[in-house]
Structure formats: structure tokens, C-alpha cells
Amino acid sequence: MKQAGYIQLNRRPVLSEDGAPLDILELHICRTRLCIRMQELRAAISTGSSARVEKLKWNWMAYTGGIVGLAQVSKSGKALNIDLNNGERFTLALDALHAVISCRERYATVAALPPRIQPVGVRNRLITDYTGLIPGDGCIPDTRGEVPA
After folding, report:
1. What is the phi/psi pair of residue 33, to 5°?
2. What gap in Å lies between CA 43 and CA 72, rounded to an integer?
3. Residue 115 bridge partners (DSSP)
4. What is the pLDDT tens value at each position of the chain, 149 positions in all?
5. Rounded Cα–Cα distance for residues 71 and 57 (Å)
6. Which of 42, 23, 27, 14 is nearest to 98 (CA)?
7. CB atoms within 10 A of CB 12
């Protein structure tokens, strides 16, 4: 896995859409600032649910700028997987995450995961897909409705 960025605790005040201050975990991934709300992150770790990953924007102060993905604990229970809406995936160890949350460490490394392979869906196939014939080339013309001579 390749290092893609890091996480750290919130160092500046961040506002929600309502203007209320938030307690967040900052994600710095590929030169992009994202965040996860601490309340949702704790719930995701304890119950296995998903936490929203939001973009951080800056006007006169940092504020959340919309959902860009989800974070959830892996099936093994040893990592936090971050799936962004654009298809990118990242992971970080839960031990490192706990160290950052409990202020034993200032940063933890975030690694990039390979993108998921999209399943190939069944599509409507034509007879020509199986026969190798090119439609309109060497086909018998449609003579229905014509009077034989």
C-alpha cells in the first residue's frame, strides 16, 4: 500500500452548516482536506455503522462543504476504510486511529487502496454478437408484405 496522506485531530474551529462548532478528525489525503465528525466516528467504531466523510472549505473560517464519501470499520476489525464517491479508497489502522484520538500521537498515516473492480453487468445481446455476422452485411432482405411476382 502506498502512503496517501495523514489524519490529525482538529486544530482550528470548524463550523457545520448551521454555524455550530464541530469536533472533527481532519483527513489530509492527496492535497485535499476532508473531515469526519468525532461523534459519528465513535459510533462507527463501536457499532460498525458508517460515518460521513465531508469536505472542508474555507471562507473566513473552516466549515463543512458536503459529503464526499463514507468511512467504516473493515470486516477484520483492524482498520478504518474510507470510500470516496469518486471511487478512490483509503485505509488506516484502528490502533493508529485510537492513538490519535487519545492524544498519544499527533498524526497517523493513511494509505491508498486499489480501486474496486466494477462488476460487469449483463447487457442485452443481439444474435449478431454470437454469430460474428455484421448487421446489414450479407443478410437476407425483409420481404414480408411484398406480393410475389
Report:
1. -95, 120
2. 10
3. none
4. 789 999 999 878 888 888 888 899 999 998 899 999 999 999 999 998 999 999 998 888 888 888 999 999 999 999 999 999 988 999 999 999 999 999 999 999 999 998 776 656 656 655 555 555 555 555 555 666 666 65
5. 19
6. 42
7. 10
> What amino acid is encoded at 93 in this protein?
A
Cβ atoms within 10 Å of 27's Cβ, excluding its own: 25
Amino acid at 49: S
DSSP 59: S
Which 3 state secondary structure label does DSSP give 121? Answer: coil
pTM: 0.73
Helices (H) and strands (E) in the chain, counts: 3, 10
